[in-house]
UniProtKB/TrEMBL annotation:
Similarity comment: family membership: Belongs to the UPP synthase family.
Protein name, UniProt field: Isoprenyl transferase
GO CC field: cytosol
UniProt xrefs under PANTHER family: DEHYDRODOLICHYL DIPHOSPHATE SYNTHASE 2, DEHYDRODOLICHYL DIPHOSPHATE SYNTHASE FAMILY MEMBER
Superkingdom field: Bacteria
GO molecular function per UniProt: ditrans,polycis-undecaprenyl-diphosphate synthase [(2E,6E)-farnesyl-diphosphate specific] activity; magnesium ion binding; manganese ion binding
Function, as annotated: Catalyzes the condensation of isopentenyl diphosphate (IPP) with allylic pyrophosphates generating different type of terpenoids.
Binding site for substrate: 33-37, 45, 49, 77-79, 81, 83, 203, 209-211
Entry keyword annotation includes Metal-binding: yes
Complex and partners: Homodimer.
The keyword Metal-binding belongs to this UniProt entry's keyword annotation: yes
Length: 258
């Protein structure tokens, strides 16, 4: 079967070796399954989010050690506000806990924090934690850890289109100058320049959807779906997802080179 969207269990690829010369520059992850992980253990859903935060720490260090340039993590979508208040409040507290405990490790690993999404709608304490972390890691030159917080892929495209329209109405550009490069630069990943598009998207927990995540940037990405819930995802799961990516033939709509 020629399915690009092949499901990959983390142990499937153990026989294959990781090719350190073909590590994707940008990996995006939809960290799904925290709630189900907790339910399975008869714990409240938020216990899954707490454990999920620990996984974020482990995977950040693992990704940085592998030489990945950008790790984009879907932490809170524009749709997640529909969850019960208690859960939303807990999720809003997580970045505060995360940065309070982890900024020294981020600096030690030369990791720079970046955030995409409408931060202005987050509680003040969460905004402050985010801005402090961005400032504290501003001098780091290694991997960019890009959190999507109150992020939606469609609204990102709408905002970029509005910005382009404004540039036309202000007489800065002609309509004909609106092209893919211009829109890419107007996306929230614009500052990542050549690393703005993930080569690999990973989604945990068995679901095979992109749920409004990086719709523009994922146009040519390889998708790897794993059955593990996010709190169970570990360094080996990451390596196996990359091995799976390395087995794909990326043609960008063209043909294989002879
Ligand atoms: C999806 O699982 C997960 C989320 C909506 C939250 C993701 C947040 C973390 C992993 C915590 C780390 C965050 C930071 C900022 C360090 P789900 O709740 O939808 O799981 P389910 O589908 O099993 O219910």
């Amino acid at each position: 079967m020629f399915s690009k969207f092949k499901r990959t269990n983390s142990n499937n690829d153990e026989t294959n070796q990781l090719d350190l010369n073909n590590i994707p520059n940008h990996i995006a992850i939809i960290m799904d399954g925290n709630g189900r992980w907790a339910q399975r253990k008869h714990l409240p859903r938020v216990a899954g989010h707490r454990e999920g935060m620990q996984t974020v720490k482990k995977i950040t260090v693992a990704a940085s050690n592998l030489g990945i340039k950008v790790l984009s993590l879907y932490a809170f979508s524009t749709e997640n506000w529909k969850r019960p208040n208690d859960e939303v409040n807990y999720l809003m507290q997580l970045p505060i806990n995360f940065f309070q405990t982890f900024v020294p490790d981020l600096i030690k690993n030369n990791v720079k924090v970046m955030v995409m999404g409408d931060i202005s709608k987050l509680p003040e304490g969460t905004q402050k934690a985010v801005y402090d972390a961005i400032e504290q890691t501003a001098g780091c030159t290694g991997m960019v850890l890009n959190f999507a917080l109150n992020y939606g892929g469609r609204i990102e495209i709408v905002e970029a289109a509005k910005q382009a329209a404004m540039e036309v109405s202000d007489g800065k550009i002609e309509v004909d100058q609106i092209d893919e490069n211009l829109l890419s630069s107007l996306m929230m990943t614009g500052s990542l320049a050549e690393f703005e598009d993930p080569e690999l998207l990973i989604r945990t927990s068995g679901e095979q959807r992109i749920s409004n995540f990086m719709l523009w940037q994922l146009a040519y990405s390889e998708f790897v779906f794993v059955d593990e819930h996010w709190p169970d995802f570990d360094d080996d799961s990451l390596k196996n997802a990359i091995i799976s990516y390395q087995g794909r033939h990326r043609r960008f709509g063209g043909l294989d080179k002879k």
